[in-house]
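2 proteins. here.
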Amino acid sequence: MCLVFIAYRLEPSAPVLIGANREESRRRPTTSPVCCRSGSLRCLLAGADHGPDGTFPEMGTWLGVNEAGMAVAVTNRSDGELAWEDQTRSRGLLAVAMLGCDRAAPAARYACAELASGGFGGCNYLIAGRDAAYAVQAPGAGRVAVVELSPGIHAMTNLDIDDADDPRIRYVAAHLDPASFPASAGRICRDDRIVIAGADRGTISSSLVRIGADIVFQHIRGDPRGRDYELFRLPDQLGPPD
């Protein structure tokens, strides 16, 4: 039940402020943030995901940002309609593919078309850039909806965005201060009421993303409680595109 939240167009110097905790099986292989290219754009991923056992040849992710200032995050849905054995396509690979877009609107259109073609487990995507932000909600191929986000604080877990019945979403709305984003978002992500501490499945990383004139990416690998965020940046060079 990952948590992703955004303060959108509330802070003049940074229209996109994102906080995210990833919840996953503790046995699933994961990495620290990595750099890559999607299409012609350099990207910074909160971690590379190569599938449940780490053997998938392609690299997916649950959260990333590209050099154009567009971020993508994905959460699974608890009401997904497709059985596990029928999920033939990767939500994480779709997230990386979307990071090849330089704006949020074409990325959202691409996501809707891909999800409607089938093969994906139930999921939500947050797609946010300086010019626009969207939530794409897809319990199944026949129920794909896109919501354009208004300026404000929004959050999603494993059902629809801004689900008022979710206590973690209510907690974010009550405690996030966009004017003091790193501090308030960090407190939220490390709070005992937010962190999932299960022995087999729980919070395995936390990330903060600030997109303004520049891009600031902070990350904790592992349980974030009692730990400081580490700063990561897109390198000035990743080599020419293939």
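next one coming up
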Amino acid sequence: MDSPLLYKPHPALFPLTLLGGLTGTVLLTASLQLAAAVGLTVLDLPRLLGAIGSGDHDTIFGVGYAMFVVIGVFILPLPLALLWPITPGDRFTFRGAATKGVLWGLVLFVSGGILLPVLDLLNGTSPPGVPEPGPFGGALGLSGPLQLLVGTQIYSLTAAVVAGMARGLQPLDAVGWGWWSHGSGESP
């Protein structure tokens, strides 16, 4: 006797992509703060953004983090959602979402590396306590490009995995426990 099909409703891709952008932004901000706490020279993207319009330290902090959140939650997830069906990787599995996330992270790494000198030029003067990053953060030594690569991968993988839940990815699939609700390990 066949078991009845269960309807497992999932939210649409777009709202989950925004939620993924929010989650990725929070994790990226936490990783920046952690790097600063352990004494690394940090590629401080929020302060670079905030210094575009002001030289005041408090304004740089507030405006920079506001811009950082708006870009991370509302702007960067949109291309991921729009390009989701045509990006390489299966649309319905954790592995496919991770592939899409890694590719999106590489796009963000390249575009961010090119835009860092542009942000520095728009600032006019460097914000207090923030060194000039140069292309790909290369002026900070090996730590700059490495921070940019790791940060973009943290952000994009988080956004893609959360967005993938709209297409049948179950949360426990992400840790390899696909057997808990279905036998194959793949979401239905």
